[in-house]
Structures are given as C-alpha cells and as structure tokens.
Amino acid sequence: MNEYREHTVQCISTAGLHRMAYTEWGDPANPKVLMCVHGLSRVGRDFDDLARALAGEYRVVCPDVAGRGNSDWLADPRLYVVPQYISDMVTLIARLNVPTVHWLGTSMGGLIGMGLAAQPKTPITKLVLNDVGPVIKAPALKRIGEYLGIAPGFPDMAAAQAYVTAVSSTFGLKSAAQWQRLTEVSVKADGSGFKMHYDPAIAVPFKEQNAGAADVDVWPFYEAVRCPTLVVRGALSDMLDHDTLVQMAARGPKAQTAEIAGVGHAPMFMEPEQIDVVKKFLLQN
Length: 285
Description:
With 285 residues, the chain is α/β, with parallel strands linked by helices. It has one domain (4-136, 217-283): Rossmann fold (3-Layer(aba) Sandwich). 33% of the residues lie in helices and 22% in strands. Strands 1-2-4-3-5-6-11-12 form an 8-stranded mixed beta sheet, with helices on both faces. It has a two-stranded antiparallel sheet with strand order 7-10. Helix 5 packs across helix 6. The protein is globular and about 50 Å long. The two termini are 34 Å apart. The mean pLDDT is 96.
C-alpha cells in the first residue's frame, strides 16, 4: 500500500476546465495542511522524502501544477503563468476544506506561494520559499530557457537519467539512487521509450516573458507578505543571490534565512539536514 493517496481536482481557466492531480500524505482528517509546490518543469513527487518526514504532523499535499506530471495540459499555452496557477491552488485549498495552510514552494512554486500570500485574506499562514525571491536573476532564466520544452525522447531509463542529471546538476544530489528516484518521477513512458513528464508548451510564456537579459523584480509582492517566512537558498544558486537573501531578512515579512552548502538551484529536501531546516521552522510556535 502506498504511503500517499492520489487525487484530482477540477479547475477552470479561460480555455475551459482541466484536472489538477495531487498526492496527499498523512491523516486526511488532519486540519494542519502543508502544501508543497514544485518548480517550473518538476512534479509533486519531488517532495516524497519531505512529505514522508512531515506526514506525522501534517496532511501534506503535493500538487502537479497544470501541464506537469499527472495534471492535464492546458488548451492555451499562454495560461501557463502564475496567476492561473494561483487560481488553481485556491480551488485545491477549497477542495481540502481547510481555512489555512502552510506553504513550501520551490522556485516557481515559491512564486505562486508568494503571490497568494500577498493577497488580503490569504489562507497561507506560514511560507517557505525554496531558492526563489523577489529578484530572479537573468543568468538563471537564460540557463533554464536553453533546455525548457526541448528535451529529446529517451530510448531507456538510463538515457533519461543521464539527461535529468545533466540539466538538474545544480540540485546537488549526493547518490545515484537519488538521481534514479528523481528521474523516475520526471519522465513517463511514451510507447517507444520515455519523455519528460510535462507539456513542452510550458516554455512558450516563459520564453516570451524572459526574452530579455534583465532580472525579474517582484519586490511589491514579497513586501505585501505578512506571515512568518523562511527563505532557503542553495549557497551556489544562480537564481537567488546572497545579497537578495540578506534584503529579504530586512524587508517585507523579514524572513528567517538558511543557506545549503554545496547546492545550487535548488535544494531538493532529500537530505535529513535539509528537511530539518524546514521542519524546525514549520513546527515552531
């Protein structure tokens, strides 16, 4: 029997209805909910280790954002943007039937969380931003744009793992077993082998919005956040620089901060010491 349960919730966009898939860990009656939301081309199963570690304290919910994993692809690629994702998450929280949630978001998942936490009457009462902040560095956007949406097909799992390891090397995973697990949730069988488990069209608005060489600045959203906040940075990150991290501790919610040595963009919470950083923050009064 799986430690997690698989569900879907119906969401809506201007292009029609779509299903968003999610996994749920822990007691389904637990009113304490932790939402774990993944990065741009990732999936909810990225959080298996973290969810397993926190399932005794939380009902942990890990969605596949639209266009990723087991969720539907959107009919209009232009809707692969943060406002649509926020709308979908509000629908999911309504399905969970809880008034408040804690939120952990990696990269894009952090931007979704920041946008929702900045709203009046937000349901988010604690926020963890994993390697993302109000300034998103142009070199990181350029790096991601070079591979997003153009992954080749893979004849076997070994070839898939070699690709995932190459494009995700900054995650800083320590063992072949970790890379294997990450690859297994990153790809799906397509009849002739494997392909990445996301809609290639997620790259369309990303490349349109990040066509220039400028950093992205969303300080107004961060400064509107009022709940307790933790920012985790990979010490080698090209997405969130150290100077921005320092500013985040002094502005807006005046976040607690932590840096993970030897990791770039982004920590994956597969190591006990990384999980402990998050667990300590979430469970403190």
